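Methods, example record. To illustrate the input and output format used throughout this study, we show the complete record for UDP-glucose 4-epimerase. The sequence lines were provided to the predictor; the line carrying structure tokens was produced by it.
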Amino acid sequence: MTWLVTGGAGYIGSHVVAAMRAAGESVVVLDDLSTGDADRVPGTPLVVGSVLDGDLVARTLREHGVTGVVHVAAKKQVEESVRLPLLYYRENVEGLRVLLEQAVTAGVADLVFSSSAAVYGMPDTDLVGEDTECRPLNPYGTTKLVGERMIAEVAAATGLRYANLRYFNVAGTADPALTDRGASNLVPMVFQRLADRQAPLVFGDTYPTPDGTCIRDFVHVADIATAHVAAARALAGGSVRALTANIGRGEGVSVRQVVDTVRAVTRTAGEAWAEPVVVPPRAGDPARVVAAADTIRAVLGWEARHDLHDMVASAWAGWTATRAAAV
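The corresponding predicted structure is encoded as:
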């Protein structure tokens, strides 16, 4: 069988493509290259275009004999979604609708959907399980929740098999060539500050946590990728028909711990100018969001294998390689 990976030239998508190919799966990528890079998917068929283009999607499915889809393509910046909600509804909701329409018409049997812990919003619980009430706080999280419900309803009507995978905080890289080239997530944000010889920023230190900073569940992008492979194979093999599962380590680390690990890896821990500076907390940031990862372990036999140091060290290797290549 052949899998179509939408958004497969992006940071997460390219890791999924690499993991699927390493597992012996046949893959084709559809990416509009708005944030992706063709260099991330060498040797993999690449169709340049958007999931909003129904004719292109239909042609890609037909010409490549696609039998399963891994849908990673999406807009994913929380702050941007608040400013541009209609853009997010068009790209994330309408894009998925078009993809589903064409996939059902083409007889595609299986769909893995890249969802997000943003569907939960600000849960008041130590561990966030899949049965935790979903109350997204921003348009990005809402589009992911709408996507999950759309998929479930289409599946009920058509027999489509699906897995909704809710990512927690993604970091790291499996290959410097696939590294996150943005600076909107915590780890690359700290890298950027240190590279500019500026102190890292910590948004609030009065939360009800051991060190006063927010606690999150960070998961290595290589682990995210293997979770997709496990889900795809379970769907194709018929052992799973409808799954919604968290992807996380089930272990929280604080923002201060992340910053300290970055400073240790970058060898700036002893520099006075690199001491983190506390600034006011951001509106809507919950004190603690940590995954309960029991479902994916029980159903797919998957668990995260990389720790925080692995994530930061690999991300730093990718960050420095990217900067060197740009010089």
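Annotations derived from this record:
The domain at 172-216+250-325 is CATH 3.90.25.10 (UDP-galactose 4-epimerase; domain 1).
Residues 85-106 form the longest helix (22 residues).
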